[in-house]
Amino acid sequence: MNKRITAVLCTATALGAVLAVPTAAQADESRPKGFSARVEHETVTLDFSGDPPKDLKVHLRKKGTTKRVATVTSFHPVRPEDWDPCADSCGDPDPTWFPVRTAPLKLADLGEYAVDVEYDGTGGETVLHKDKAVLTYQVRPSFTNLKATNGVSFARPDTVVSGDIKLYDPRNGSLKPYAGGAFTTRTGTVSSPLTADAKGHFTSKVTFSGAESGTTRAGHDSTYVHLASRANGSEERASVAVPVTASTAARIALDSPTVTGPYGTAGKVSGTVTWKSADGSWKPAPAGLRIAVDTGAGLPYHLTTGSAGRLEGSVPLTKDTTWRIGADSPWASSGTQEVTVDTTGGTAFIGFGTTLLQSKYLEVKGTFLSVEVPAGITSLEVDFQYSADGRTGWTTVRKQTVTANSADAFDERVRYPGPGFMRLRYVGTPDIRGSVTPAVRLAERTTTAIPEFNAAPEPVKKGRPITLTGKLTEKSPDWKPFAGQTVRYYFRPAGTIAWKPMGLSKTTADGTFTRKFTADATGSWLAKFVEPTTAHFSASSRVDEVVVTP
């Protein structure tokens, strides 16, 4: 088959707690999009898309009351590693996102506190956001002295996790044993309920499946036991890192080293994943082991093993290439298997959408991709199709010519066919796979009309008044007056083609409108309803010509 370079379209966030009594009116927000507040234990974190505003404050008050009990004015930036566990290995953080955080709060009383956020707006005005979050200030569980007795592997999936649960009082920082404290351990998706002893200590055997996720940093593989405990409405979570010795003798045996199919479809990957035990026998990998398929275009796709180590999954076909398949898990290092991919002619739509305009036209947008189209074919035809119910009776209302072997974006207008559905379709040929978008329900608008319009008197002497009158109606479901709407007036001098805006007026309760102008020149008058709403179509009156005499 012909080899072509095809475009790849990627579509693919020192507390000084002092009493304060200032007040501020609730104001409209003029700060960056995405401003939010979140609470974790005794701290408040504020997320800003952009630099934090000036004179930033956090006010606290008992939930359900108006009296402030503390105001926070000191914040420190949140480091990426504080909230993103892979910040040191996943590239630079988002440079447009600026979280700041308070130090742990020290308050006199336990309870629930409303969090209000105040700062200076862009015009120097005081902006106050009330009830941005709720701080639960209670005695809460706290895990300490956590450890695992040994690392794990396919051959040895068990370890013993131990530690202590204490009750932490945020008022004075004291820690007391959580006698008989209930908690859970979780590995992967498996959770187990447990209870600490009278001294708040626990020791528990944990068995891994061998498919849990984990981290790999500088050659050190780890998986995790996650713990959670709850008391007084507050929850504490912690994790114990457990070293993993990866099986370097794992292997992937693919059913086929090649995949072929039309562009826009999915290629099947299948095979068996096994690992070599100490006695030399090969055993199936555990269900759920993650396998990466590197297609050479962005992030890899991930598949997981099923029972008996079987690997079966699908990956989109986008071009002629080589896929590299290997284990992506702290539990196994399998080496890489290669699959030769032969992508044949095919098509796909992305980004399809419609907007119903006031002018009774549909704005249709989307991108049509075609790949590996046979030589000699330079263009293809896309059908814009309409159906009243979105299932049957599809009719083509327009055809659009697009360039073959390209990503062809379009922004077209078609006459509104009425309430119903629209889709885009390329029929296809024996050598080029066709494609069709999902049916999209079209928006609906109410039809309007100006059935009555008159400019009088006719003729009129120059400098004398001329009165425009008319009536605006809407069909909902029958024709009726459309009151309280803006009608705009336009004038076109005789011998010209451009309409000049002349003014506007509102319709009365019976839908009528009127406006007086001074006669200046012979020409044509027109009235329009063209307000930018999404509920109604626009409407135009008839054109009324008026002769102006000296």
Structure at a glance:
This protein has 550 residues and is mainly β. The chain is 1% helix and 54% strand.
Keywords:
single chain, 550 residues, mainly beta, Immunoglobulin-like, five-stranded antiparallel sheet, five-stranded mixed sheet, 1 helix, disordered N terminus
Strand and helix map with partners:
Blueprint lengths: L35 E5 L2 E7 L7 E6 L5 E5 L3 E2 L2 H4 L13 E5 L9 E10 L5 E12 L2 E9 L9 E12 L4 E4 L4 E6 L2 E6 L5 E7 L6 E4 L2 E12 L2 E10 L7 E4 L3 E5 L3 E11 L5 E3 L5 E5 L6 E4 L5 E7 L4 E7 L9 E8 L1 E11 L4 E11 L7 E9 L7 E9 L3 E9 L5 E6 L8 E2 L3 E2 L6 E9 L3 E2 L3 E11 L3 E3 L4 E8 L6 E7 L5 E7 L4 E7 L9 E2 L3 E3 L1 E2 L1
Parallel strand pairs: 19-26, 36-45
Antiparallel strand pairs: 1-2, 2-6, 3-4, 3-7, 5-6, 7-8, 9-10, 10-11, 10-14, 12-13, 12-16, 15-16, 16-17, 18-20, 20-21, 20-24, 22-23, 22-25, 25-26, 27-28, 28-31, 29-30, 29-32, 32-33, 32-34, 35-37, 37-38, 37-41, 39-40, 39-42, 42-43, 42-44
What would you note in describing this structure?
The chain is mainly beta and 550 residues long. It has 5 domains: 36-137, Immunoglobulin-like; 140-243, Immunoglobulin-like (Sandwich); 251-344, Immunoglobulin-like (Sandwich), CATH 2.60.40.1930; 346-441, Immunoglobulin-like (Sandwich); 448-549, Immunoglobulin-like. Helices cover 1% and strands 54% of the residues. It contains 1 helix and 45 strands. Strands 12, 13, 15, 16 and 17 form a 5-stranded antiparallel sheet that branches.
How would the global form be characterised? flat
Mean pLDDT: 89
Point out poorly predicted stretches. 1-32, 83-93
* CATH fold descriptor of the largest domain: Immunoglobulin-like
> In CATH terms, what is the architecture of the largest domain?
Sandwich
Q: What percentage of the residues does DSSP assign to strands (E)?
A: over 45%
Please estimate the helix content: under 10%
**Rg from Cα:** 35 Å
Largest sheet: 5 strands, antiparallel
Distance between the termini: 80 Å
Question: What's the total helix number?
Answer: 1
Number of domains: 5
Provide the structure class: mainly beta
CATH H level, superfamily name of the largest domain:
Immunoglobulins
What's the β-strand tally? Answer: 45
CATH class of the largest domain: Mainly Beta
